[in-house]
Each structure stands twice: as C-alpha cells, then as structure tokens.
Hints:
By secondary structure, the protein is α/β, with parallel strands linked by helices. The longest helix is centred in the last third of the chain and has 14 residues, at about 310-320. The protein has 11 helices and 11 strands. The strands form 2 sheets. It has an 8-stranded mixed beta sheet, with helices on both faces. It is about 30% helix and about 15% strand. The relative contact order is 0.11. The termini are far apart.
Amino acid sequence: MSVDLEIKMTSKxxxxxxxxxxxPGCGDYSILKQVQTVIPELGLQRENIVFISGIGCSSRxxxxxxxxxxxxxxxxxxxxxxxxxxxxxxxSVWIVTGDGDSLSIGGNHLIHLLRRNFDVNxxxxxxxxxxxxxxxxxxxxxxxxxxKSSPLGSIDHPFNPLALCLGADATFIARSMDRxxxxxxxxxxxxxxxxxxxxxxxxxxxxxxxxxxxxxxTEKASKKQNALMLEQGKPLVFGEGxxxxxxxxxxxxxxxxxxxxxxxxxxxxxxKDQMKASVLVRFxxxxxxxxxxxxxxxxxxxxxxxxxxxxxxxxxxxxxxxxGRGRLDELLSGRNTWVI
Length: 340
C-alpha cells in the first residue's frame, strides 16, 4: 500500500549557500525575506519556479533563491522570460528588476511584455536611483534630485511607473513597500494568483545613495497621512483614525474630512474599473505640496485577458490541424516575387 504524502517546502529550503551581497540596511533584504516566506505557501514545486533578472542591485536576486534562475542581460530579463514562458508554460516565472533596469534600457521590452500578457510575475524594485553603478539619477528619480550624475539637480521629468504600465495595457498593476512586510506578502500572493502579466512595484530604500526616499510613506509618524491603502470594495480613507477620505467630483478626486462627509460619499475602490484606475495611478503628488493626494498602495487594476502563450500554442495547434497552413516549406516555395 502506497501513501502519497505532500511534502511542503519551507522558507529555509529557498535559502542558498551564496553570500548575500547587498549593503547592510538595504531594502532588498526585506523583499528577499518576504518572497522566501510566501513561495512555500503557493503550492508550487521548487523545480517549477524560475527567477530571471537583468542587471542592478535587485538583479542579484536569483543567486539567493534556491530555485532555477538566471542573472541575464541589462534590461532584457523580460525578453528572456518571454521565451521561457512560451516554451515552458507550466513554469512559474518571476522577473526581478529595478527602476533603472526596467524603465531605462529595458523600457521597450517592459511595455511589450505587458501588452502581450505572458503569464509571468514582475517585481519592480523602485529606489529612484542607480545603486549598483554608484548613485546616478534614474528614470524614476524626482526632478531636482542631486546625484553623482546630476550635481545641480536632475532636470529630467520622471516616469510614473504604474501610469506607464497601465498605458501599456497591463492586466495587473499593484504597489507595495519593503518596510510593510505583511502588506508585501499579501501583494506577492496576489501577483502570483493573477493569470497574465502581473507587475508589482515595490518601493525599496537605497540607504547608501537615496536614503529616506519613501520614508514619508513608511514611517509610523507620517504614513497614515500620506499612504492610501487600497482594499477592494472599501471606501478610500486615510489619515489618523481614517478621518479623511477621497471622493470624486466627476473624475476629479477631492480630499474631504469625514466630519463633513459620510463613508457613502466616498470613492469605493474597484480593481476592475480601468477608468478609475487611470485616475488612481495619477495620485503621484510630492508629499507636502498644497492639496497633495495620498500615494496609493495595493492592487490598482486587474483584468482577465488571454495570455500570449495560450494563444500562441493554440495557433500552432490550429496550424497543425489545418492542411496547408503554417508549413514553412510551402511558405518558402510560394509564388510571391518582388522586383528591386
């Protein structure tokens, strides 16, 4: 008599023998810990998990995960992951990237991966700086930031990463932060569960070259006033004791005091509403500015759409079944000619 026992993976089994080479205090340590905590809860076999990265501090990630993985080319992890998913659709493929890797040299690959909708998970570590190459401003650095490559302050207008991704028709976009491990673990699970390209932006502190870039959202004294935690089907509330809320005047968001309005007057979050998501990703004011809206964290938008690999494999199967379609030899011996 045989007994089929399911052996559950533990987080310790995901720790490699490699020395973790990030600066002491780097936010990457927290993200690594949360990923190693969550992966065993997903019901995956370790041999079916792959982490692929580009170049940058975040891209050391595959060395520290006892799974299959690849430390690939600058900005090209998305292309490599696409090829892998197309040929091995049963794998759980995770792309680890940074704001420089994915939004600069890899920006073109990123938007095309999003529109194609491969079933992969993107973890975008955003610290608004180039860390590995020692502190140059990145595509997400705020205007005026003084860095090694902008000593008088950056004059580049920064990307709004989630607005960019929504504009590329991403089917899942979300945001979390390194210093809220409970929230980050929940978002990692949601990222995995989505069927299609999932993009999770993670605010990650670079304590050497851009320390405190997000502390207004992460520190206890300021978080409640500046961070808006999104919950499906719940009104948008924030502030001490959730004393403030967001209501819509047409499509214009307004901050109101709940002493003057009820919860029924507020914007109710709906992850399936693309129009509202397009407004929500524009909650991107600099904290402290007059009339600044709080920065949202959570799932902004999710939709169901066929994945690229499913459509590709169906197309191949249909071509095999249909006589005379999709045959390379017939294509090469065709009657089409061109005069140059």
